[in-house]
Structures are given as structure tokens and as C-alpha cells.
């Protein structure tokens, strides 16, 4: 029954005209898609990391599906969330709610530093964090280090509002056509950091979850490299992978590991409907023990370039994002 169901679904989904066509051009990708839990016209984000739950997004049209050297990639147009980027079966961004993530991971760090001039984004091939960093007039240079060129290329095609400042990158260390402050490097973030010390005022670790190419970007060695790459007042922001509704023990141990390297480590939350459980955790770390990450250190009016504005971040939400529910306080100290 399962084989019959799979076969009929494949025929239906891709409107293929012959078994020969399926076999020749689609069979591998179709198998991938099944691994990524598409049923009918719904995508379900299923994983053993969050047992017993799966957020579903309705598909209007599949735009791209394939496998790169690093990960499985799916891009689809959804009925209600705009275009959606999925890596290894996990939603990375949707056009409708991406700003809640990009603005918070970026501005919590940028607003905690008096004068961020040089910024590194590790991962972030969709370009959303770079877009946010560029809103700050103090910024002179942003380096984006993404391991997988395909993510950038697909984002330029299907997520134009997020990736617009990556436009024009062609080879390594190329300036963006839309903003010469942006430099794109196709490289493993771990390797890049090992070669750069004492350079960045802010580092944003905008990586995928630790199950794929980002595996080593959640360990102590990586945090040490981040610390070394920062200037003396430097701040990092990283997506914490776990949220408060799932493995609080993992979150606790991640915070403890960060605290072995950084003197200040705080956990902040943002609300993103298409991320697992709707809440996403961010870890903010500072190199100087006197840094206050929990309050903005300046006003948006003073830092914004031209008329740059936000849809989610504001100075009050900065402070409130560090406030923890009672059941979480047993595990995480802020
Ligand atoms: N907001 C996102 C989320 O849902 O967690 C992250 C978005 S961004 C698309 C994550 C990027 O990190 C991916 O494009 C992936 O290729 C990149 N990445 C993963 N491992 C990396 C590594 N070791 N070095 C550089 N980039 C990496």
C-alpha cells in the first residue's frame, strides 16, 4: 500500500507523463522530497528533535528541490507565507515572518555595542542579517561567510527582499553591487574564523541547526574562535537552535558552554510562527564583562542610516526579550 501510495503521489505531484520520465529526471529528487515530508500539497517540518509535533505549511508551487554538497534544499511558494526556504527539512525563512528573526538576531547585538563598524555574519546565505546590519550608519564593512553557494543563488532568485544586498557577488570576497560595504565569502565559517583574530565588533552566527554542515558551530571550540575574532568590546549573537518548549537541558548546557568562554551570556527570545514551536532562542555573548546586553545602549533614531526602520525590533522589545517565563528560569540564568 505504501509503495502504491508513493507512486501515485509522485505522478500527481509532478504531473509527469510517463514512468520513464519519472525515472530519468525526477526519481532522486522525489525521494529527497519524501524524506522532507511533503504530503499532498502540505510541507510538514518533521524531526526526531521535536517528537510528536510538526508545523505544516501549504504549498502552492515547488520552485526548487535538490541536494548540494552540504544539504538538501527545498524552496516553495506557499499559499500564505510567501516563498519558503527549507534546508535538510527545516524551515530557514519565509517571506512573511523572516523579519522577526533577522531584526532580533541582528539589532540585539548591534544595539548593545556603542560603535559597531566591522561585522561578520556566519551562515546567513539568505542575506536577511546583512540587510539588517546595513541599517546602521556606523557600519563600514560586513563580511558574510556562507558555506553553500546554492543558498545564496536561490535566495537571490526567490527571496529578493532578503538577499538584495548580496546581489553581484560572483567570486570570493567580491563587493556587493548594491552596497560596497558587503563582502561575500564562500567558505566554512569555522575555517574562516580560525584565520581571523581581533577584527570584528559584532559577529552574528546565523547558521542552520547543528544536524547538518553547522554541526561544529555549536561547540566550545567554535565559541573560542568567535571570542578570538572579536575586538575588545565585541558582541556575538547566535541562534540557539533549541527553544524553551523542547530540550531545556540542551539549552542549559549550551549556555554553560558559552559561559566558559564569554564573561557575559544572556538568552533572548523572538516570536517566529514558522520556527519550531513558534519561539526562537538567541544567545547573546560579550567579550567585556561590563557589557550590558539586556538594554539598548543607544537610541534607534541616532544609529539608523537614512530612514531605516524595523517591523519587529524596538527599544522596549529589546529589554523584554530577555525576560524569562518562570519554568525556564530553573534552567537558564539571565
Ligand atoms: N535563520 C535560519 C534558521 O532557521 O536557523 C538560518 C538561516 S541561514 C539560511 C543558515 C545558513 O548557514 C545556511 O545557508 C547554511 O548553508 C549555512 N551554514 C551551515 N553551516 C555552515 C558553516 N559551517 N559555515 C558557513 N555557513 C554555514
Plain-language structure description:
This protein is an alpha/beta fold and 334 residues long. The chain has helices at 2-14, 19-35, 98-110, 128-133, 149-158, 160-163, 189-194, 220-229, 248-261, 300-303, 315-320, 326-329, and strands spanning 38-39, 42-45, 55-67, 72-78, 83-87, 90-94, 118-123, 141-146, 174-175, 182-186, 200-206, 230-239, 264-271, 279-286. It has an eight-stranded mixed β-sheet with strand order 9-10-8-7-11-12-14-13. A six-stranded antiparallel β-sheet has the order 1-2-3-4-5-6. Strand 4 and strand 5 (83-87) form a beta hairpin. Helix 8 crosses helix 9 (248-261). The protein is globular and about 60 Å long. Bound molecules: S-adenosylmethionine (SAM).
Quaternary structure: single chain
Count of DSSP strands? 14
Separate helix tally:
12
Q: Work out the strand percent.
A: 25-35%
Gyration radius (Cα, Å) is: 20 Å
Q: Trace the largest sheet across and list its strands.
A: 9-10-8-7-11-12-14-13
Described by the principal axes of the CA atoms, the overall outline is globular
Regions with pLDDT < 50 over 5+ consecutive residues?
Answer: 14-26
- Helicity range of the residues? 25-40%
Largest sheet: 8 strands, mixed
Order of helices and strands: HHEEEEEEHEHEHHEEHEHEHEEHHH
* Structural class by secondary-structure content: alpha/beta
Average pLDDT across residues?
A: 89
Bound molecules: S-adenosylmethionine
Straight-line N-to-C gap: 52 Å
Amino acid at each position: 500500500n505504501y509503495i502504491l501510495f508513493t507512486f501515485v503521489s509522485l505522478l500527481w505531484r509532478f504531473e509527469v507523463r510517463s514512468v520513464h520520465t519519472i525515472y530519468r529526471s525526477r526519481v532522486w529528487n522525489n525521494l529527497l522530497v519524501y524524506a522532507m515530508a511533503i504530503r499532498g500539497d502540505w510541507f510538514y517540518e518533521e524531526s526526531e528533535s521535536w517528537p510528536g509535533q510538526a508545523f505544516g505549511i501549504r504549498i502552492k508551487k515547488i520552485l526548487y528541490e535538490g541536494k548540494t554538497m552540504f544539504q538538501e534544499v527545498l524552496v516553495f511558494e506557499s499559499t500564505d507565507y510567501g516563498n519558503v526556504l527549507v534546508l535538510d527539512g527545516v524551515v530557514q525563512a519565509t517571506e512573511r515572518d523572516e523579519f522577526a528573526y533577522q531584526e532580533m538576531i541582528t539589532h540585539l547585538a548591534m544595539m548593545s555595542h556603542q560603535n559597531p563598524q566591522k561585522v561578520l555574519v556566519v551562515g546567513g546565505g539568505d542575506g536577511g542579517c546583512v540587510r539588517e546590519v546595513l541599517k546602521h550608519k556606523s557600519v563600514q564593512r560586513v563580511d558574510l561567510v556562507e558555506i553553500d553557494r546554492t543558498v545564496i543563488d536561490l535566495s537571490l532568485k526567490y527571496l529578493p527582499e532578503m538577499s538584495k544586498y548580496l546581489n553581484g557577488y560572483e567570486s570570493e570576497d567580491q563587493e556587493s553591487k548594491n552596497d560596497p560595504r558587503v563582502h561575500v565569502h564562500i567558505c566554512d565559517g569555522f575555517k574562516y574564523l580560525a584565520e581571523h583574530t581581533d577584527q570584528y565588533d559584532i559577529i552574528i552566527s546565523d547558521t542552520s541547526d547543528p544536524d547538518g554542515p553547522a554541526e561544529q558551530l555549536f561547540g566550545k571550540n567554535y565559541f573560542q574562535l568567535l571570542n578570538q575574532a572579536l575586538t575588545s568590546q565585541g558582541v556575538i549573537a547566535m541562534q540557539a537552535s533549541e527553544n524553551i518548549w523542547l530540550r531545556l537541558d540542551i539549552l542549559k548546557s549550551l549556555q554553560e558552554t558559552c559561559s566558559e568562554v564569554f564573561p557575559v551570556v544572556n538568552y533572548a527570545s523572538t516570536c517566529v510562527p514558522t520556527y519550531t514551536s513558534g519561539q526562537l532562542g538567541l544567545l547573546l555573548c560579550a567579550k567585556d564583562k561590563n557589557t550590558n546586553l539586556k538594554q539598548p545602549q543607544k537610541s534607534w533614531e541616532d544609529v539608523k542610516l537614512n530612514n531605516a526602520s524595523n517591523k519587529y525590533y524596538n527599544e522596549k522589545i529589546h529589554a523584554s526579550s530577555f525576560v524569562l517565563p518562570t519554568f525556564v528560569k530553573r534552567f537558564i540564568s539571565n
